Backbone:
């Protein structure tokens, strides 16, 4: 039972903090982007066939739920490793228009071109980029100049009237 | 020459063993705990856009508004520069990060985490707009563009003074032409305090519900009497005094029209930036700048400021019409008929949305599309034919841009052609009228 608890806590911490974990589990970390129930399902799947005590499952579920809510309410923090990879990619994308297009089209290929091998976790983050949703609302504004033409005050017209 | 060499030798003899640069180099090497000075790294960091830390100005105003479709937007104002910009929620997120501490890279990552999108084009466009409108401190200078401009200017100068003089004369002529299209003649910049005082000392009564009812009654009565025979009968001789009254009446109409724009702006607690005399497409105009109404979130209030001018002309026209019906004096009828005609003409002129008169601002506010005219003309010029060729579908804005852009473009061309054709005739008319009026004044006395 203690071993099961240790494994669960270790993987849960790894999952929540983005710490490196063993290779065979790492791809599944992309599950962090999935809803909570999928994450819990994943944990259950890892531990199968060992039975998960109901109390422990509940505690884990509560902890994950709290973490999930917190992430929904404030901008999420990201693991240091991902931050470094993102920083490199974004720095290049900011200064190189061609690279920017390639990054949006194929993040994996673009990153490889920079000598970066992205983990599935990082790739999943980059693939969620939806460039189309950035409909810019920034808008220059007209000067609002109310005008009255002085055309009707043309003296020539008035003098014509006077001549009559 | 010998003297100079001796002097150099003297300095060389008295110089210390190590040169200044060597000493500085040693100092840098010896500096405890300091990293070696890497000039290229520092320069690299300075010009790296990703490391640029934009800092917003400290003195700005921000208001929140919502379109009829429920989309939230923000109006940004720089009170010192008198500039305005509209932002969306995503741009506001970036604006809030522009504190001089976060780099463009930091902002991109934070944005990616919040919105799941890489905002590079958004940031580039936003920074350009913010710089143009003076919303950033330490505005970066486009060194390469400035250098290119300086080189171009020098190249031009080297081709000879005659060539340069000819270009300068052409520039002056073009400048005068464009000034005639939209340059200011007289600008009163501190008008806001005056209008504020006027509003507090009685101007606000114009907005009282009782006054509103009186306007409607006056309009109804005035329009009803428009088609009735005048009160006074018999012929009339138009003299200098009649002309003087008409002229004073016309000036009063203009003052009232612009005055109510300004007072309505004050009614909504916004600033009247300036007023004065100007040219607009070759026509002499009196103007009031109510750009600050952009900070007013309710579009009906913005429309009310634009509507106030033509509405005042409708009221005054109706009052003149009622006066003609009631007046027993033919001389008064001549004055009132002229003033009524001008008032009704001004209502229609100002409500025409195809040029930037009051009707244009009302239409723009109603449609909630800032810069409607500029964007429509741009759309017609750059995108319309491509979309028609490709038989692509048009969204709401594109449909509006097409209809408005085509009509506004056509109307502007007509006005400009008329301006160019009749300008010499008009100048002659003005000078003849001026001399004629002086002649009449002298003969009157």
Residues:
């Amino acid at each position: 039972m203690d071993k099961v608890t240790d494994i669960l806590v270790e993987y849960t911490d790894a999952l929540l903090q983005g710490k490196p974990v063993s290779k065979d589990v790492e791809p599944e970390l992309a599950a962090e982007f999935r809803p909570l129930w999928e994450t819990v399902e994943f944990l259950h799947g890892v531990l199968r066939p060992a039975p998960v005590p109901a109390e422990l499952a509940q505690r884990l579920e509560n902890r994950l739920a709290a973490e999930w809510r917190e992430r929904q309410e404030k901008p999420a923090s990201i693991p240091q490793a991902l931050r470094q990879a993102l920083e490199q990619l974004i720095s290049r994308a900011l200064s190189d228009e061609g690279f920017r297009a390639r990054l949006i089209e194929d993040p994996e290929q673009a990153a490889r071109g920079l000598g970066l091998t992205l983990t599935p976790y990082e790739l999943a983050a980059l693939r969620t980029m939806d460039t189309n949703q950035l409909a810019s609302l920034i808008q220059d504004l007209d000067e609002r100049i109310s005008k009255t033409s002085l055309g009707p005050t043309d003296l020539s017209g008035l003098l014509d009237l006077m001549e009559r | 020459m010998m003297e100079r060499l001796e002097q150099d030798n003297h300095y060389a003899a008295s110089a210390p063993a190590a040169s200044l640069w060597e000493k500085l180099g040693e100092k840098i090497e010896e500096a405890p705990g300091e990293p070696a000075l890497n000039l290229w790294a520092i320069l690299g960091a300075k010009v790296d856009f990703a490391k640029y830390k934009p800092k917003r100005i400290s003195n700005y105003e921000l208001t929140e508004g919502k379109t009829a479709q429920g989309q939230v937007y923000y109006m940004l104002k720089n009170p010192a520069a008198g500039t305005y910009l509209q932002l969306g929620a995503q741009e506001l997120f970036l604006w809030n990060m522009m504190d001089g501490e976060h780099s463009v890279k930091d902002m991109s990552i934070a944005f990616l985490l919040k919105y799941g999108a890489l905002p590079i084009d958004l940031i580039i466009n936003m920074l350009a707009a913010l710089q143009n409108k003076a919303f950033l401190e330490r505005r970066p200078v486009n060194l390469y563009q400035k250098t290119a401009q300086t080189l171009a200017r020098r190249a031009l100068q080297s081709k000879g003074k005659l060539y340069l003089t000819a270009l300068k004369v052409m520039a002056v002529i073009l400048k005068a032409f464009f000034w005639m299209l939209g340059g200011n003649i007289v600008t009163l910049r501190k008008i806001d305090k005056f209008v504020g005082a006027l509003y507090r000392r009685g101007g606000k009564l114009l907005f009282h519900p009782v006054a509103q009812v009186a306007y409607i009654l006056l309009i109804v009565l005035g329009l009803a009497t428009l088609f009735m025979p005048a009160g006074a009968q018999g012929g009339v001789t138009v003299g200098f005094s009649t002309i003087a009254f008409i002229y004073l009446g016309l000036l009063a109409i203009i003052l009232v029209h612009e005055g109510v724009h300004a007072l309505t702006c004050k009614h909504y607690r916004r600033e009247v930036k300036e007023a004065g005399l100007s040219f607009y497409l070759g026509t002499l105009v009196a103007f009031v700048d109510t750009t600050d109404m952009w900070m007013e979130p309710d579009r009906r209030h913005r429309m009310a400021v634009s509507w106030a001018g033509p509405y005042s002309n409708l009221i005054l026209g109706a009052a003149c019409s009622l006066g003609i019906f009631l007046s027993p004096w033919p001389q008064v009828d001549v004055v009132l008929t002229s003033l009524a005609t001008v008032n009704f003409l001004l209502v229609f002129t100002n409500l025409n949305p195809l040029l930037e008169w009051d009707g244009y601002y009302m239409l723009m506010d109603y449609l909630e599309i800032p810069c409607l005219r500029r964007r429509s003309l741009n759309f017609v010029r750059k995108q319309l034919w491509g979309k028609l060729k490709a038989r692509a579908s048009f969204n709401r804005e594109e449909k509006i841009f097409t209809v408005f852009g085509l009509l506004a473009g056509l109307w502007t061309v007509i006005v400009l052609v008329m301006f160019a054709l009749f300008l010499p005739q008009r100048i002659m008319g003005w000078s003849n009228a001026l001399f004629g009026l002086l002649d009449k004044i002298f003969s009157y006395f």
Remarks:
- Chain B touches chain A through 91 residues (CB under 8 Å).
